[in-house]
Amino acid sequence: MASSTSGDVMPSGGRIFTSFPDVFFLPEFVFGGLVWILVASTRVDAPNPLGWVMFVSVFCFVGTTLWFFIFLCGANQSSVWPALDTAFHFVAIVFYLSASVALAIELYQQQWTSNRRCSRTPH
């Protein structure tokens, strides 16, 4: 949420809805909630990384919600907040990247396994 407003002062209150990139709070809530719901409602047959994906989704959704309320209340005005903001988003990026790679590997393995089964069936 590090904003491009004046100096080290981070936006607070209603200004978070008008400053870039802080305006992305709302879409992050919507899409984060959708991911959370979709992962939670997925049926899991075999051991796969959906537990990690769910943890990442919940962690980032709760963290973003907490961050949103801190910014909304204006409690982010000390000089420490830009570094905390950067650190939180770096952790979120690493978590989301690791979750997406884990799911991509799982999808590839499932597709490979299903293709192998199909090639073994007699015609």
Automatic annotation (TrEMBL):
Q: Where in the cell is it found?
A: Membrane
Q: What PROSITE patterns would the database entry show?
A: MARVEL (PS51225)
What does UniProt give as the signal peptide span?
none
Tell me the ranges covered by the MARVEL domain, including all copies: 16-123
InterPro entries with a match to the protein in the record: MAL, Marvel, MARVEL-CKLF_proteins
Q: Does the keyword GTP-binding apply?
A: no
Q: Does the keyword Cell wall biogenesis/degradation apply?
A: no
Highest taxon of source? Eukaryota
Question: Which residue ranges does UniProt annotate as crossing the membrane?
Answer: 20-40, 52-72, 87-108
Sorted keywords for this record are: Lipoprotein, Membrane, Transmembrane, Transmembrane helix
| UniProt GO MF annotations | structural constituent of myelin sheath
Designated name of the protein: Myelin and lymphocyte protein
Upper classification of the organism: Eukaryota, Metazoa, Chordata, Craniata, Vertebrata
